[in-house]
Design a protein that fits this description.
2 copies of one chain form a homodimer.
Chain A: H1 4-18, H2 27-34, H3 38-50, E1 54-57, E2 63-66, H4 75-83, H5 110-128, H6 131-151
Antiparallel strand pairs in A: 1-2
Helix pairs in contact in A: 1-3, 1-4, 1-6, 2-3
Chain A binds a DNA duplex (30 and 30 nucleotides) through helix 3.
Chain lengths: 152, 152
Amino acid sequence: MLSKKSKYALKALLILGREYGHGPMLISDVAQREAIPRKFLELILLELKNQGILQSKKGKGGGYQLGKPPTGISVGQVMRALEGPLAPLPCVSRTAYHRCEECPDERTCGIRLVMKEVRDATARILDSTTLADVIKRVDVVTQGKETLNFSI
Amino acid sequence: MLSKKSKYALKALLILGREYGHGPMLISDVAQREAIPRKFLELILLELKNQGILQSKKGKGGGYQLGKPPTGISVGQVMRALEGPLAPLPCVSRTAYHRCEECPDERTCGIRLVMKEVRDATARILDSTTLADVIKRVDVVTQGKETLNFSI
DNA sequence: CTTATAGTCCATCAATTCAATAGGATAAAT
DNA sequence: ATTTATCCTATTGAATTGATGGACTATAAG
């Protein structure tokens, strides 16, 4: 299950993605808009900044903004930054491989064979989906919904 | 990351899968073969039994065996039995759907859109892979390895 | 019917992780 | 200098994870 931390992070990044190009945004504003505990969000955004995903500015007129355009930040990148490797086993991670201590022979481990497939499928999706993609898809759905409401 | 519980469970089930048709096997034997803490494995096998995946017999000549042939037990089924839904969000689970409390509108949630893809991809793999499939794949690899060693 | 065998069940444990909060330090703008 | 806002460290309570101990129950064999 996705942690609240990651959920909050993605929500925040989607907001900052929509705001991209309009200067920095306050933690408090993001927190309020998404009903995220302010102090908790502070930690999350700080971490994302230290991972190079966000930029920040202190003092008046300060706040947070994306470090790159939303087309350049993938969901996979965000989740790895906060939760570590996407892979269900360390021995099938591409970005953070290390062997399972208890595994006598990696090549003949059946669990590994299956989990490798899962990790590849997951990475294929999350690494190819950018914040911009998500925003666009939400807009399409939202648009569709509103049109539907109007037509009633 | 896969919990040790699930890892132990799958290892045990793969052993029991190979042994299928030869009567019950002792917890202690399974534990020893895979270097799993005996008491911990006891809990796991009991849970798998209560979930209908395993059968047990008490007393002398007793032990555990698969409740169905290894072709009839999928990895997805095992993981759901022990860890709950495969889905990264409750709102994208098919087998255990319930909405995210904090989500104002499910239809327009971008995170949901992405995570639904992940859950579908994961479920497609894990639900279509049976214990028998895993065993067979391991045998193919093992066979290949041994042949390779012989040919040197 | 007694005994050895082997799973069942309950309770507890330490260590870690998760979610959240608190408060002072630091940097920047007016 | 003061206000604003992020930065950083520490702490907390609750839940989860991984593991262990011991008493109880069912069964087969003698």
